[in-house]
Design goal:
Two copies of one chain form a homodimer. The first copy, chain A, is an alpha/beta fold. The first copy, chain A, has three domains: 167 residues, 3-Layer(aba) Sandwich (Rossmann fold), CATH 3.40.50; 131 residues, Rossmann fold, CATH 3.40.50; 173 residues, Rossmann fold, CATH 3.40.50.970. In chain A, 38% of the residues lie in helices and 18% in strands. The first copy, chain A, has 21 helices and 20 strands. In chain A, the strands form four sheets. A seven-stranded mixed beta sheet of chain A has the order 11-16-15-17-18-20-19, with helices on both faces. In chain A, helix 10 links the parallel strand 9 and strand 10. The first copy, chain A, is globular, with a radius of gyration of 24 Å. The relative contact order of chain A is 0.11. The mean pLDDT of chain A is 96.
């Protein structure tokens, strides 16, 4: 290769770097070897290895949520992509921007049906907003530029570029420039007028916020509207990232449990949507509705995730004359620690007592954490990341990616033990990259949520359901597993030992894990 | 529900049991709750929990390989299936019979796009030979019966039945009977005549065996043909299960490395295929061929995996007059242990020295194990399972499933450290089910194969490739990780300590892990 020539892989790496991609979460294989070599030759992309692709894609989700900008993933053919599928599902439902690069056999090799040959486009399609297989080395850089642009479209999308090995190793001329990314849509004037009328109707209104409507700026405008009109603010359940805490406009989520959600929505005649969709049950249950709102409640969409949500709320605030209203803000208020048994409330109180300013909380605590929001709403400003796609095994990878995205912020990762086992390999990446993540594992030693669901269907646990729902026999020892991956860890089985362990984790740098035996 | 009535879930469980399904490898969620309850109510299916779906589907592959009969998996919606995708890819390439049951939202709930809503059929299609979504509770049992029949078609197929929650909870009338499964095809007489002519031509012939052509009975016939005609026997590289050892007709695999494979196939003018396909490079490389045989070599397909392979070989043996020939058989011969450093050869020698009769070896040793076959060919009769689909993370689950399938046989699981990290949750299932698996982890602390591949493309490791290919910093402690999941473990860093550890594992019951520091 002469100095002015490069191969397709190098043209793609240059394109990614020129396009602003800083990090590549990766687990490569032989098909990606020329791309790997190019990552050495062209400096500028930080490679972060995950020892399983679910870690890789979940980290890209966490990174995208925190940066509002894509990272790249590097995945090995269809099975590597398959391993990352669940967390790409979560990322897509979170509207996180991600650029996947998936290695494929050389174009001429595919027809021979080698062991790793698979329908990569078919595997990618259900979790991607955009999929393309590069046809030759000359087109790779343009395809890569297009992938970045697609990922960056509002609100954030999953773009998957499939890279046959020969398009990486053949000669190419140069990198490509990322096409301009369209601005988000602005609020439709009819929608705006309709929402103004609703707010002035005197009837009870819920303003349901989602997506970037849960960032501090948007919440300010929503708070003004609420204060002025009497509308009640709520957050969608599947909130990808909420900026909350003292000084900010607070908002509570629609509950997960169907009957509780129906209770919350019952008083309202109108539902204004700003970045959210109308609340839907996580699962269907016999005899219960799918839509979690009164039948007579009318839905008015102000803006969706594809819009500039903050601007839409600002326009609505101005239109109803709330521009200069001072919204209700959350006061600074931390709970005192609770002593004695290690209850869910004791854990919540310790988190509320200790959470550092500017922390990022990645929450997959499932049953254990349903009340943590009440203990933490008055903490100094912080971000809270919830599940969006319902696929468990999200949060250890997400915390890993959030820590890469925000090296100066403390990441608090809250996970059920069942969920954490899905992608425990994340701990090794946290150790290697010295990421500032404190992980709390809620070791209830069961898929506790399923025990509740079994009761819901009127059954009592028998041999097979106990086998399937309990994580006992043997018990998992999280301290040993974390140590085995190079992460310091502690076990806590009282409120006091938990509080001290959490204090240690939050007040020191680097990864730390607490097995909370609840 | 009256005594004569049942719901769809119960009708499906009854159908599975009546259809001969004995084991359900499972990781369920809320959508599958009625199915779970039915598994309690109707006794007869053994549920084996995996703490990640890659364990579940890989175990089903191992079970199917050993039983030639399907188990069921129970997976939670699209993401749960996605987590199991890579090992379903492997299972499909192994032609293992598997019946997947994938829970889905209630039919009327899907349109609401709840968090877990996904294109399950789309996710299933690339790794399934048959996919169906049940439409209502009445049809569930018939669909389940069809799924079993589809999975059982020769040589073994992946059947995926998607079970919307309301088809499980609504009322159904009864279970269904599995349709008759067609017999495998018999050898085509023209193909037979052609192969007879080739064997009598006096030109050099390779008889390439694959799939059930690698079982002892088929190998007997192949050995007679070889002895009589001078044809040379080889096995496909991706051999799902080979019955080998003392007293059997031995067969060596086509090597993984392209140049070595070309060297093996170079002398031959004819290639007769019996259950295998013509050898193909695992990956393409610039300037190297995809098909690993001389251009002038002619291919003759005697039988494919869809045929009765043993019968095809028998007919060929009879047609060439080799029916009563005594084939070359492998002599009983064990190597002596090697002392000193823990080399690959020392490990191979210890395995060859100690492997128990009737053992099942699940091999994903990748670079470390390329010579193990020479050390073990003269061991007492045993089975050897290789990778078929190239997706790593196969073998700990496979060993788990093989142990469930064959409780009276010792399972020896050989895994690279990189591969083992993919599905290490398998160890917990082995501990819980007290499975008789000895696992050897080759702790070379790198994706060693990728270092070789990087050299192949003429690059030297830089910062990013070292980051991506090395598993150092921190090192993984397999003893701690195994202990954390309830599995006894030992570290070995000399030939002597390895030998003693292997002896301990193979001579005691239950799971045991050895971290072999090579």
């Amino acid at each position: 290769m002469s100095a002015t020539k490069m191969n397709g892989a190098e043209s793609l790496v240059r394109t990614l770097i020129d396009g602003g991609i800083e990090v590549c979460f990766t687990n490569p294989g032989t098909s990606e070897m020329h791309f790997c070599a190019a990552l050495d030759r062209v400096p500028g992309l930080r490679c972060v290895l995950g020892l399983f692709e679910g870690v890789v894609t979940g980290a890209a989700d966490g990174y995208g949520r925190m940066r509002d900008f894509p990272s790249a993933t590097l995945l090995h053919t269809g099975p590597g992509l398959g391993n990352g599928l669940a967390n790409l599902h979560n990322a897509r439902k979170a509207r996180s921007p991600v650029v996947n690069i998936v290695g494929e056999h050389a174009t001429y090799h595919i027809r021979h049906d080698a062991p790793l040959t698979s329908d990569i486009e078919g595997i990618a399609a259900p979790v991607s907003d955009w999929v393309k297989t590069s046809r030759n080395a000359e087109e790779v850089s343009r395809d890569g530029a297009q992938a970045i642009a697609e990922a960056r479209k509002t609100p954030g999308r999953i773009a998957t570029l499939i890279l046959p090995a020969d398009t990486a190793w053949n000669e190419a001329s140069s990198g490509a420039t990322v096409p301009s990314v369209p601005n988000p849509e602005t609020v439709n004037s009819n929608a705006l007028d309709e929402c103004v009328r609703v707010l002035r109707s005197g009837e009870p209104v819920m303003l349901l916020l989602g997506n970037k409507g849960l960032r501090a700026g948007a919440l300010e405008w929503a708070g003004r509207i609420a204060k002025h009109s009497g509308a009640v603010l709520h957050s969608e359940s599947s909130a990808a990232r909420t900026e909350r805490g003292a000084g900010r406009v607070g908002v509570t989520r629609i509950p997960y449990v169907v009957d509780q959600a129906l209770e919350v929505t019952r008083p309202f005649k109108h539902l204004i949507l700003a970045g959210a969709k109308a609340p839907v049950a996580f699962f269907a249950y016999p005899g219960k509705p799918s839509l979690l709102m009164p039948e007579e409640c009318r839905i008015h969409k102000l803006v969706g995730p594809e819009h500039d949500i903050e601007d839409g709320l600002r326009q609505l605030a101005e239109a109803v004359g709330a521009k200069n209203i001072e919204p209700e803000r959350q006061e600074l208020r931390r709970p005192e620690p609770i002593r004695g048994a290690l209850t869910r409330d004791a854990i919540g109180a310790s988190i509320g007592n200790l959470l550092p300013e500017n922390a990022v909380v990645c929450d997959e605590s499932i049953t254990a954490g349903r009340n943590f929001h009440t203990f933490t709403s008055g903490c100094p400003p912080h971000d809270w990341l919830y599940g969006t796609g319902g696929a468990i095994g999200r949060v250890l990878p997400e915390a890993t990616g959030a820590a890469v995205a925000c090296p100066d912020r403390k990441i608090l990762c809250l996970s059920g033990d069942g969920s954490a086992m899905y992608t425990l390999q994340s701990l090794w990446t946290q150790a290697r990259e010295k990421l500032d993540v404190t992980t709390v594992i809620f070791a209830n030693r069961s898929y506790a949520i399923l025990h509740g669901e079994l009761l819901n269907v009127g059954a009592v646990p028998g041999l097979n359901t106990r086998t399937m729902f309990d994580l006992e026999n043997p018990s998992l020892d999280w301290v040993q597993m974390a140590n085995g991956m190079g992460v310091e860890a502690a076990m806590a089985d009282t409120a006091e030992t938990f509080h001290r362990a959490l204090e240690k984790g939050l007040n020191s740098k680097g990864p730390f894990l607490i097995e909370a035996r609840i």
